[in-house]
What we know:
The chain is an alpha/beta fold. Helix content is 42%, strand content 19%. It folds into two domains: 10-78 and 249-264, no CATH class; 95-230, 3-Layer(aba) Sandwich (Trna Endonuclease, Chain: A, domain 1), CATH 3.40.1350.10.
Amino acid sequence: MKLQGKPLTIPEIYAGISEAGLYTFNAEKPLHIVASQIRRHCRGLSFPSASSTKHFESRGEGLYYFLNRSVQEKQPKETVSTPKRSLLNDLKAAHKSYTADVRSRILGGLKRLQPEIFEQFAKKLLEAYGFTGVCVTQSSKDGGIDGHGRLKVGLAHINVAFQCKRYTNKTIGRPVIDQFRGAIQGQVEQGIFFTTSRFVPKAEEISFKPGAVPIILLDGEAIVDLMIEKRFGVEIEHMSVPSYALDMLFAEEDSSASSLQATKS
């Protein structure tokens, strides 16, 4: 600009730099780098990546000229980190809220089932998991056992018995688990206890005991997890949400910024 004594366009500036050997561009789009650096240091232009130190000014119609003295311009502070992050956080929060609402409605539906229907539900859920020969015992003759089934583990099958307690708020304590274990001890290799409520810590502690039949505890939240995992009673719609990455051009501009500034200095 100084040699020609007049404002120049971006292509003219790039041509002058190359002809004079002032800087070697190793980027695929050197014109973009020149344009970026000129605009970043142009007086009156303010945007997030703009520099506060200004070396140029716009003369209109795509022409730029250098300032006799560099000036400092205060850049406005960003009130939001980035629109992308803000929108992404909103999307994550909305999905989390939606998922929590769906889980709550599923669990609420389970708690409204009649006890006999809940036993049939447990039977079908075990079948969805891979159990075979699952049956529900007659309520008057269950002896604390609501059903039986088999599960293939490796080359063998294990026999299981299950019990169901459809409660709204009442928790399951240790005595109930001890009673269930006593009813199945010596008959099966594993017990499964379903409840729409929760287990107290003492019940969880004795679910596995040396020399005793292990009891798998499935509370309301665990049942919902299993339903979602096996898509049992839950339809899952797969929606594709695209994500975007900035063009490599911007990475080139950022990496070249310091080098170009050093050359000017």
